[in-house]
Specification:
By secondary structure, this protein is mainly α. The protein contains 13 helices and six strands. Keywords: Membrane, Transmembrane, Transmembrane helix.
Length: 367
């Protein structure tokens, strides 16, 4: 009861924070947040969960319930998952959508969720073929936005790979190591029973699928596809010690995908271009869209800083104006008191005495 009272007292503050987070966002972001809230309300019905979530055995033939791949993502059964989903989608509207555009962001959202549904089903199908336990096909219900949360972490890693999140005694935590670290945390929580087994599976699927899309298939405004930067390679997700091992495992798979035309080969080239300011050199691993993305991020940060500075200046000017008005009003109610006139000190005057007793001319005596 005490926790409920604390939560009820903080409802106005939480409402204010959510309104600030979702303010000035696109209708698609608001639609996703509203649908997630509605899905949480519907999740109290067990029948609704069975119908709207992805069940691996029913997604396969003969049932072939493909429509569940479009409904499972907004179904959350825990309140903390709803809050995390809304915060993540709101941050996407603030950070990713201005760079990609609304259409590209929704495309990324749809492709990631559909891919997570099929890849997770394939994962449980492999477990069933190994254990012959039918519970992995018909008792498992895949739902929620865990896969999309992982995809957002990968997109943030691509946009701001070296952004410092926190300093720890073991080292610095940046966006570069965030997807793998959260996957390990999800596996740990599943091992102690705090999460369903579908959560780490969906997180790993979302991480892999989003990286494939952003690495090879995403189309940019200049006509190019993917992001072949060195800091966005798959081995870059792992610690430096494990990167050679991961590179040795991934390289044969990459070559097979290139041979079958599923992805393109990483270009290794140096461009020299003359410009009025001199010679422009593009080194290997530095893609033009990566440079443009960083330039847009820098411009956005600069505009936000300038807007904050102008707002502070405006508030200071307003405060000064209010203070001056207050002083004027105060002075208008005070009766002015002028200093009294100084006393006039008269200098001693001369007294004139006239002798009128004699006929002689008057004699003047001065005293």
């Amino acid at each position: 009861m005490a926790a409920l009272r604390v939560f009820s007292r903080n409802i106005p503050y939480l409402r204010q924070q959510f309104s600030a987070l979702l303010g000035n966002t696109s209708p698609s972001v608001k639609f996703i947040c509203v649908v997630v809230v509605i899905g949480y309300v519907l999740s109290f019905s067990r029948d609704v969960v069975n119908v709207l979530s992805v069940t691996p055995g029913y997604l396969l033939p003969p049932s072939f319930q493909l429509w569940s791949t479009f409904t499972f993502w907004f179904l959350e059964i825990h309140l903390w998952e709803v809050i995390i989903d809304i915060i993540t989608v709101g941050l996407c509207g603030k950070l990713i959508e201005p760079l990609w555009g609304q259409i590209e962001m929704m495309k990324f959202f749809v492709l990631t969720n559909i891919g997570v549904a099929f890849l997770t089903t394939f994962y449980y199908l492999m477990i069933f073929s190994w254990t012959q336990e039918t519970s992995y096909l018909f008792d498992i219900h895949v739902h929620g936005l865990a896969g999309y949360l992982a995809a957002v972490c990968v997109a943030v890693k691509q946009i701001l790979p070296d952004h410092l999140l926190i300093k720890t005694p073991l080292g610095k935590l940046t966006n570069r190591s965030l997807p793998l670290l959260l996957l390990l945390v999800a596996i740990l929580f599943w091992a102690v029973g705090a999460l369903e087994g579908t959560y780490p599976c969906m997180w790993g699927s979302g991480t892999l699928l989003s990286w494939i899309y952003l690495r090879f298939w995403q189309k940019h405004s200049n006509g190019s596809r993917g992001d072949m930067a060195e800091n966005f390679s798959f081995d870059n997700f792992f610690p430096t010690v494990l990167q050679p091992l991961v590179r040795g495992v991934i390289s044969p798979i990459h070559r097979c995908c290139i041979r079958f035309g599923l992805c393109s080969q990483s270009p290794r080239r140096v461009h020299l271009a003359l410009s009025p300011r001199g010679v422009t050199i593009s080194m290997p691993g530095v893609e033009p869209q990566d440079m443009e993305r960083r330039r847009q991020i820098a411009l956005k940060a600069l505009s936000e800083r300038l807007s904050k500075t102008s707002e502070i200046t405006r508030q200071k000017n307003l405060s000064t104006k209010v203070n001056m008005d207050t002083v004027r009003k105060t002075q208008s109610h005070v009766i002015p008191q002028f200093p009294s006139e100084p006393e006039i000190i008269q200098a001693p005057t001369e007294a004139t005495l006239i002798d009128i007793s004699s006929e002689n001319p008057p004699t003047t005596k001065t005293s």
